[in-house]
Design goal:
Rossmann fold; seven-stranded mixed beta sheet; single chain; two-stranded antiparallel sheet; alpha/beta; 9 strands
Length: 194
Amino acid sequence: MNDQTIRYYDENAEAFVAGTENADMHECRERFLRYLKPGKIILDAGCGSGRDVIAFREAGYEVDAFDASAEICRIASEKTGIDVKQLRFEDLDGENEYDGIWACASLLHVKPADLPDVLQRLHRLLKTEGILYVSFKYGSAEREKDGRYFHDLTENTCRELLTEAGLSIRELFVTQDVRNGRSQEKWVNAIAGK
């Protein structure tokens, strides 16, 4: 994630949280959790408001979380009651730590040249039989909007990236944006196993 995108989130953290914390992601979370028994440990990678951290904890999972924005981390820590770490995907280091990794609308800020390395890092963090969820805005563009960098994917490009990272696709599906006034926007979602 580039510095300009992180600066956007630092400067607009309150508005971003207000606009996303009530987005109804239950369908995607339920599809992801079918592969994980309660009590397992999940990493919310790029957790934003902490909305999904709260939902996972309420469902009986242990959760770690990080975000690249210091302000988002501060707000998410307050809302979730856990210590949300400030990290970029490129800083991830470790092996066999998580049963599941949830990267909801966060990897879309990673440039295409950096995605293979980031996906390898996430792959290493997964335990044997671990599950990864990712979502990207649907399309084939790289763009900047409101000071943020975005990298869109289609089903094919998402499948290729995950397969090249050594992950096996369990589910690949397209959804509509669940935020108010955004239903015309589409997302490509994938659940992949180690």
